[in-house]
Structures are given as structure tokens and as C-alpha cells.
Design brief:
The protein is of the alpha/beta class. The chain is built from 13 helices and 15 strands.
């Protein structure tokens, strides 16, 4: 089959690789109809991880079930499904508690597994024609048959639940004000989710014009951090108090607010100043224990200079960690079906799989309006 294969920093290629096969009675094989490129894929693409050449990318996947293992009971051939980026067993201590992003079974020695991602287990990615899905009864979410709302449903694999997870980590409640740092796909999904949860005022902080425009279109208030300190800008619009809650949808590759270059802790420190005393921070943005491309020696070891004294002084609380997609995807699917949510507003391009190398290059450079790319084998 054709698949997107990592060749080295800033290089991927569409190559022929071995077809997946049923390896366990609980497996299914899915013919991929849509697989998205994620900002997390760019960390590997840029050489900022320990990913080895040869890995097949793609953890945001949906398609049609082609083959079913003999132990699968609830999924049948022909079912249209979307698959959480988390590979999870469904029966370990963490899965039973709802923490499927931290499954203790699928990636021995590490809490959590994922498709097509470095250090997340032996699971080939889905930017390909076919995908093996283990523990399929647990991991496959059924969708209405047909091709309707393909782009909306594809976002249930990762970014819609992850944006919602940011709001859940911050415990966003009706009537509250929220600051979302990062206007990429996850940040826009976090802002959208905050509005779905009844937030009264949502700010989105970024510098990319297309992202800020998208934020405004969904009813959020755009804040361009190049026009002045974002915390100060937000306080001016909240009677000097700051917001009730904050979401970090950027992570460790955060950009300086003045000048060029990375400042890995700037979003965390800005949120500490943005959120009012006793407020909460949700951090679904990715932080890593090691970053070969970090701007200094501490950052390379995953050690960031965060204002813990100010954090303590304000009595803030913080929730972190990757999304447990299974906790949210069924309800978010039903919002889409009911017409209450349409997350595909973030999708900028839909392309054939063969154009993946060009799409990666343009998405990485943030050119030509590339914000969220869906690939169709």
C-alpha cells in the first residue's frame, strides 16, 4: 500500500510499504478514507524528536472496516469508523478510569500508545491506504454510513476532543471567561469548545492573521501578541481582573512575543499573568522530556523556567496531559450529528495522499493559509 514515510528532518515521501494484517483476534483492518496532518506530526517532521527514518506517520484516522478479526463482536465489515489517536486496551487500571491516553497495556514500559508516533508503541500510522486497529471493539467509534460530514468526523480522532480536553482540564463552566493561547487547530477547537460549554467571553492569542480571523468568526476575541503583551491586552478587556480560566494550546515550541525565536515557557508564564487569582489552567499543548532543538541546554532536557512562585502566590491550579479521546468522542460525535457542532471550520485543505510531502512543507512554514490538512488516499 501507499503510505507517508518519514525520511529525515523536513522530508517525507509517499512510498509502497507492506499492507497491515490481522495479528490478533481483536484486530480490524480499516481502509482509510481520511487522515489528517497534525501539528504534533511536525515535531517529528522537523527532527525535534527521536523518530527514526521509516516510520509511517498519521494518528488522526477514519475509514471503512475491511477485515474483522474473529474476536471482534461489535464492529463489522463495512462499518464507517473514526479511531482515537490513543491506542488503548480498555481494561487496564487507567483505561477503566477513563484515562485512555495513558493505557498501561499497549506500550509496555510507558503509559500511553498512539499510531505513527515516536516512542508510542509499534503501531503504524494511518497516513496510508490501510490501518490495523487493535482492541477494535474499544477503539473504533461507529459513524453514520455514507460520506456526509467526513471532515467533521475526521476531527474526532484528535483535535476536537483535544481542544475540549483543554477546557475540561481547566474546568471551564458556563458564564466564565477563558483565554486560549494558540490559534492553531487545537487552540481553535479549545475556543470553540469553551463556547459550546457556555463561556461568556473567549480570547484567542496568536499572531497569524488567518487564525485570528477564524477565532473571530466563531465568536471569540482575537488577541495579536505582536501588538503588545497579551496578558495586558486581555486584562484591559476584563476590568483588570484577567480571565477565570486559561488553556495552553501551544506547548514547548512557543514563540517569543517580542522578536523572533522560541521561548518554551512563555505561554505558561503568560497564562499565569492572564488568569485571575484562584483560576485554573488547562495544558493540552505538548511538552516533552527532551527536545534536541531546544533554544538552550535546559530546554533540550525538557527543563523550563516557569514562574512557580507567581503561580503559587495566585493560588492557581493546573491540569496537564494528552487527551483521553474516548472520554469525549462519542458525545462530540452526537453534537455533530445533531447539527450542534461543526468543527470542520478549521480545515484549510483537502488533498490526495500523493500530495503529502508538499502539504507537510507548506503546513510547517504556515504558508498559503495552511492550517489543517486532510489527506484522502
Amino acid at each position: 500500500m501507499k503510505a507517508v514515510v518519514y525520511k529525515g528532518p523536513f522530508e517525507v515521501a509517499v512510498e509502497e510499504v507492506e499492507n497491515p494484517r490481522i495479528e490478533h483476534p481483536n484486530d480490524v483492518i480499516v481502509r482509510i478514507t481520511t487522515s489528517a496532518i497534525c501539528g504534533s506530526d511536525l515535531h517529528m517532521y522537523e527532527g525535534r524528536t527521536k523518530a527514526e527514518p521509516g516510520i509511517v506517520f498519521g494518528h488522526e484516522n477514519m475509514g471503512i472496516v475491511e477485515e474483522v478479526g474473529p474476536g471482534v463482536t461489535s464492529i463489522k465489515q463495512g462499518d464507517r469508523v473514526v479511531i482515537p489517536f490513543n491506542v488503548a486496551c480498555g481494561f487496564c487500571k487507567n483505561c477503566v478510569a477513563g484515562y485512555t491516553g495513558f493505557c498501561l497495556t499497549v506500550n509496555p514500559g510507558f503509559a500511553g500508545g498512539a499510531y505513527g508516533y515516536v516512542a508510542m508503541g509499534p503501531y503504524t500510522g494511518g497516513q496510508a491506504e490501510y490501518l490495523r486497529v487493535p482492541y477494535a471493539d474499544f477503539n473504533c467509534l461507529k459513524l453514520p454510513p455514507g460520506t456526509e460530514q467526513e471532515a467533521d468526523f475526521a476531527l474526532l480522532a484528535d483535535i476536537f476532543p483535544t481542544g475540549y480536553h483543554g477546557c475540561e482540564l481547566a474546568q471551564v463552566s458556563p458564564g466564565e471567561s477563558v483565554a486560549v493561547y494558540g490559534g492553531g487547530p487545537v487552540g481553535l477547537m479549545a475556543a470553540y469548545s469553551a463556547l459550546l460549554r457556555g463561556a461568556s467571553k473567549v480570547f484567542v492569542v496568536d499572531r497569524v492573521a488567518e487564525r485570528l480571523q477564524k477565532a473571530e468568526e466563531i465568536g471569540a476575541i482575537p488577541i495579536n501578541f505582536q501588538e503588545g503583551d497579551p496578558a495586558a491586552q486581555i486584562k484591559e478587556q476584563t476590568n483588570g481582573e484577567g480571565t477565570d480560566k486559561g488553556v495552553d494550546a501551544v506547548g514547548y515550541q512557543a514563540q517569543m512575543h517580542a522578536g523572533e525565536g522560541e521561548e518554551p515557557a512563555i505561554v505558561l508564564n503568560s497564562l499565569i499573568e492572564t488568569v485571575r487569582p484562584t483560576g485554573m489552567l488547562g495544558v493540552p499543548g505538548l511538552y516533552v522530556p527532551a527536545d534536541p532543538g531546544g533554544p538552550d541546554e535546559n530546554a533540550k532536557r525538557g527543563m523550563l523556567l516557569m514562574g512557580i512562585g507567581r503561580f503559587f502566590e495566585k493560588g492557581l491550579r493546573m491540569g496537564t496531559g494528552q487527551c483521553n479521546v474516548k472520554r469525549y468522542n462519542r458525545q462530540l460525535r452526537d453534537l455533530i450529528i445533531a447539527g450542534r457542532a461543526k468543527p470542520s471550520f478549521v480545515v484549510s485543505h483537502e488533498l490526495p495522499l500523493d500530495q503529502a510531502p508538499q502539504a507537510y512543507e507548506k503546513f510547517d512554514k504556515r504558508v498559503e493559509g495552511y492550517t489543517k490538512v486532510l489527506l484522502h488516499p
